[in-house]
Amino acid sequence: MRLAIWARLIKQFHRRRVSLRIAVGFLAVMGLNYASNSPTQAADSMPTIRVRVLNFTKATPQTLTSAEREAGRIFGDAGLNVVWLNCPLGQTTVNPTDPCQQPLDPSHVIVRLLSDRTRKGLRDSVFGFAILPALASVYYESLITLARTYRAEMLDLPTILGCVMAHEIGHLLLGSNHSATGIMKAHWGRRQVRELIKGDLLFTSQQSKLIQAEGQTRMHFEMSQVQAADSNSANLLRRM
Question: CATH for 3-90+99-239, among 1.10.357, 2.60.40, 3.40.390, 3.80.30?
Fold first, then answer.
């Protein structure tokens, strides 16, 4: 990702860096959170964001697909449609039609699945982090440990991965604040685990409204850029 693109995006959104920490002391989470329902809308009437997923771990395509489905369900409940783009690593050929190689615009965000080996001093209890406005990261191996811890309660890996991805993307759309309940709660306990298992760990109604508004803003910003580019091209052709 070119540095100039990140600088432009950060300037456009005027957002500050946020670090998501999830400390599991019994599932004491600092920076990862998850809960309230909002009516699901038809996908074609929802604002849409596109999530480019970069998998630097041994997570299988099946696990990732299931996790994306769970995260998509959570955002769908909040009134936001998510299009997932699983981008291959180490591409050596340039394909202008490949959405993974397109310039990053406001309606696109990136989620990286990282190995615990990349922590560089971060504690094992940190599940992930987000850098506004467009980059979220998840430490996949920590989630494997968490899933094993609650194996007796049927906490499966794709579900927890999907919820963590939704939480991190939630930070990109909502900012660094947490809530007292729901998927953006700063600390998890057994109650949140039970909600996660039942599929009830969601965004609050207020968060859902903010997510929809942010999704619309990003889509409109992208559209205005496209229209401006088309107008510039038309003006250039008229001068020729």
Answer: 3.40.390
